[in-house]
Records
---
Amino acid sequence: MRLLRIIYFSLITLLLVACGTGLSPTAQPEATPSPTSEAPLLSPTAALRLPDTDLARLAGEIKIDGSSTVFPITERVAVAFGDLAPDVTIRLGVSGTGGGFTRFCAGETDISNASRPIKQKEIDACAASGITFIELPVAFDGLSVVVHPQNTWVDCLTVAELNLMWAPEATNRITRWNQIRAEWPAEPLHLYGAGVDSGTYDYFTSAIVGAEGVSRSDYTASEDDYLLAQDVAADRLGLGFFGYAYYAEYADQLRAVAIDNGQGCVAPTVKTIVDGSYQPLSRPIFIYVRADSLNRPEIAAFVRFYVQNGAMFAEQALYVPLPETVYQLALQRVERRITGSVFSGGSQVGLSIEQLLQLEDR
């Protein structure tokens, strides 16, 4: 595979995980590749749908940043597109949904990966810079709560219990497992979760705490889901949350906790995400494309290629593909340059695939 033309960059959150802080969104440190996934970047027998463009003649650069949740899908698209358009350089970063939108609305990137819809304040920032965008759903995710396999006491958590763990008032107060349930061990509770620039953090806090962007502060934070998965896999007393694809990739080192939203305990699986029973932690995930960037043939071809093959790449990245109708509606949005968001801004808690389809078909 032609990886030489795909350049990975990040905001070095690796060095700042413990305190949950990050660098300026304009920082561009030395490139580092992502960890290798067990899922193939491209099935050799996959039948790709190609845009009506001579991809081999394309040249230029595509800058992408944002969500680590969406990263595995976009990475696969970038690798496959790079095979077909070897003279196009793709710069792919992971600074979190919020950090990605900061760069996107400052005109620094062409495409922003996002694990939640764009917020109104981000829409306003883009408008202030004269940037219009096209919103494209690419897959469905089940945000997964996980523990170490040697954790023998947690099988299911209620939303109220998760709230007890993660609410702001839990800071430096709810620090042991037996404070959640008296029969659980009187051992330290180690929490791992998305950093504040992450759309996963916004969604989780909205769904569990009841207010977007509000939580306890004394947990290990990162915008890099790979790091969070590895942290929990190494900590018998740990509990963390991140996108379903990262749980699926590390399933031999982690155990998913079922969630009880009042209808009984439901674990995250492709089936429960598709049928809408895994709530309130199922959600759509997106890319956002600058409308003016579509005037460049390499970006227009890349976006069409992404959407036309969205179901295949989502499945390869271990996410839940959307119905083909949604991808067709997304492609229409690209072709017609339909800008703006169909959402009111921010996280959409409890949204099902069927409800997303209704929104997209407006």
---
Amino acid sequence: MAELNNDLFSKIGNLSVDGYFIYSVESKSFQYLNDSFGKIWGIEKNQILNTPKLLVNRIHPEDIDHAKSCLEECLEDGTEKKYEFRLLVEHVEKYVRMIIYPVNNISGLDLVGTVEDTTVMRHNKIHIEQINARKNITLEVLAHDLKEPLGMMRLTASSMENDIAKTGSLEMINSVSFIKDMCERNLRLVRSMINKEFLKSAEVEIGKERAELVWELRDVVRFYKRSKLGKTKNFQFTTSSEKIYMRLDSMKFLQVINNLISNSLKFTNDNGYIGVHAEECENSVVISVSDDGIGIPEDLQAGLFNRLPQTLRPGLKGEESGGFGMSIIKSIVDLHQGKIWFESEVGVGTTFYIELPK
């Protein structure tokens, strides 16, 4: 039966564009490889059969430890495993997904599985995530850009209202009232649009993938710096490491960072400081978003993540708060098996910390 299964496996492999393999752990050699396996790795099949260690040289230097730990985990658990890592073929990065099945037979333990080139799919996914993240940031920036002039128009109309009432002109009174109502309606519309968009995307389960955190965070801060908000706030990004690789749902996590920055914008005066920092630790990464704004009063701190009515307060320019942001932030961090906390002092500023496991 084992020979029949191996024969069927080989026939399928010979027809597939994915790589198929059978590797003997005891003899440390491949019992079967299809041609596609060699093409994905960029090495002739016969070379791999003669010198299996050549495969290690193709693994991206930054992923070698990850690949070794994956193999050790598979051998230890003895169950089906799915792994993703990168190859470096002629200076070109290639993403691969490997599915491994440990199979015990008379001759010992074999690792049987497939390898799929996921480079195009990964690049497309990264591109989509970047577009979605930029969309969320753009919406938030647009909201801030719209709220200020609408708020000023509403304030101006209110200041004109008493004087116009003295004229007795019903047409003018109605016109000013119309301006006030339109400003109020559109201010609510802008905030509702942001809250609904954030809620809608947060409802989806997270899908963690390998991501380069420093690049993602630097790109977010860079976008704020280049926007109109960059002229009224001092945005800064710092990091303890030039590159930090970890598994996370980039799109969801950037929503968290974007929402924390949005909160800082509400409660930080013009020319104030808003900073994002990434600190790589031994088993985790700590990301912080800090500002030198008005701070959070002690009586509002306890229920901040629970959307309690008493924790809701308008921003410095009257920005409304629906209270969704903090509870969603906490939910997304929890889904990443992370922790979130903050330190704040009235008149000094606030710093939110997020710790994620590597």
